[in-house]
Amino acid sequence: EAFGLVTFTASLYAHATVLNVLVALVVVSVGLDLLRHQRAVWLPRALLFPLVILALAMIAGIVTGHSAGVGVTKAIHSENLLAYLLFLPIAVANLNVDRARVSLLLKGAFGLAILKAVLGLLEVASGRGGSVEHTGSLTYYEPVANWLIMIALLGIVTAVLARMRPPLWMLLGSPLLIASLLLSYRRSFWIAAVLGLLLVLLLALSPVGRRLLVPASLLVVVAIWLLGSVNFQAQSPLLRRAVSLSPTSLTTNLEDRYRLDERANVLGAIREHPITGLGIQVPWAATVRGLSVEHLAGRLYVHFVALWFWLKLGILGLIAYLSLLIGAGFLAWQVWRRGGEPVLRAFGLASLCGLAGLAVIETTASFTGVDARFTVLLGAQIGLLALLARTSA
């Protein structure tokens, strides 16, 4: 901004965050590598339809938002996280790396998950971690660390059940992953982890083991129901957070009640504009139901990512989100079935079951295309699945 050479570029610097610059550097670097080695850009077939629809939805969101009074520049900059989803999977899928390098990368990611778990547990032990609804000190409330830890946990369970003989250090790190995830107090991630583990059991076990899933699932359901129906007098923070999953607690808790009110108003707005939505950066209005509490910029956010895509980008946005999850799941399935190396196959099944859990998580909070760091991680993960599916074909 202080260069003074081209004054109109001053507005650009405000949006040139470190993360934006790093993502742009990744995309440009891969593009230059393609040019240097004269390789054509490869577009994963499973992602072609979702990414094309996403690009069209982004244009529609800008046009609709601008027609509602949002400036074009502001609308474009508001979609920078969606651009991560658009370009990062393609960039990572076109990396010129061999499978041995990817295996090393995944082992490093597992080690990073254990390190993050240790750091989170140290925060809890020191009493310096954040808190939510009087639960006491927690490890991580943000989605990135919890997602990384959950995928690592699903990966190690896959390796054990499929008899892939994971290294001892991975097995020893598993209790740390479980403890960190529990002490995050993220109820949605708890549910997603349980769902993911059940799916891992279903797909990785032998036919005899699969038959045990029905009674095991019934026991889990009964345990959750009993937990929600008993009135505990002296509850630990972990137990209080678990009991809050019961339907009666969801309607009496102020924040949970807000989410129900928010959803009613968002659905009302979608019914009025089912095709175009409201447009990017256009707030929804509380016309259907009054809100129990107001949040700063809360009218620009939706605690249900499918509705967020629909509201901001129109029906194309909803289709883009759903098809992206399906396409990524298809790639993960290919890696699991034809991945070859144990670590790659475990990553494929962990990603597949994690994506199923993500679909559940994002009915209570919006991360994909909304949270910057999570979107980067998910975009890179989808691109890595595409790269592995291509090399295993």
What does this structure look like?
There is one protein chain. 70% of the residues lie in helices and 0% in strands. The chain is mainly alpha-helical. Helix 3 packs antiparallel against helix 16, helix 5 (80-93) runs parallel beside helix 18 and helix 9 packs across helix 17 (342-361). The chain is globular. Residues 1-10, 226-235 and 245-250 have low confidence and may be disordered.
Features:
393 residues, mainly alpha, 18 helices, globular, disordered N terminus
Brief sketch in words of this structure:
The protein has 393 residues and is mostly helical. The chain has helices at residues 10-13, 18-36, 45-67, 72-78, 80-93, 99-126, 143-161, 168-182, 187-204, 207-211, 213-229, 237-243, 247-252, 254-272, 305-313, 315-338, 342-361, 372-392.
Q: How many strands in all?
A: 0
What is the radius of gyration? 22 Å
Order of helices and strands: HHHHHHHHHHHHHHHHHH
Q: Report how far apart the termini are.
A: 49 Å
- State the assembly state of the protein chains: single chain
The percentage helix is: 55-70%
Characterize the main sheet: none
Average pLDDT score: 84
Helix/strand class: mainly alpha
- Give the amount of beta strand, in percent: under 5%
What topology does this entry show?
Elements lengths: L9 H4 L4 H19 L8 H23 L4 H7 L1 H14 L5 H28 L16 H19 L6 H15 L4 H18 L2 H5 L1 H17 L7 H7 L3 H6 L1 H19 L32 H9 L1 H24 L3 H20 L10 H21 L1
Helix pairs in contact: 2-5, 3-5, 3-16, 5-18, 6-7, 6-8, 7-8, 7-9, 7-17, 9-17, 15-16, 16-17, 16-18
